[in-house]
Amino acid sequence: MYNCYWNMHNYDMMDYEDDNDLEMMYPEISNRVRPMVVMHCNLLEKKYGPMCRPSHKELDEICEDMYEKIKDRLDRDDDDHHDHDHHEHDDDCYRQRRRYGRRRALNDLFRVLLLGELIGRRRRRRRRRPHYGY
């Protein structure tokens, strides 16, 4: 079992530059997805303001847009790792089912990342506001 507990003294002394070792563990797809998440959050904030709350439909559209932008790359990666021992017809059916499942899973992931980014932005803004204790 890993012990991730630290006291405030250790936290204050923590060097944020040391996060690079963890950041290097992100999968390659994150290099493509992260900029899209940030761009869409910037657009939402520009359209609705910093405390924006997109509708479910808007999130669905954004997630679908993100999927469309990376699906060709994912398909090429799948083809590179494909086993050619299957029959062609069975293989096509399998690919279609897998792509549909992948689309749903990635759209869910995109939604999680978008909401996480929007929530993180709100929290950072709240911490920067001075508190006067009225």
UniProtKB/TrEMBL annotation:
Location of the region described as Disordered in the Swiss-Prot/TrEMBL record: 75-94
Highest rank taxon of the organism: Bacteria
Name by which UniProt lists this protein: Uncharacterized protein
Organism annotation: Clostridium malenominatum
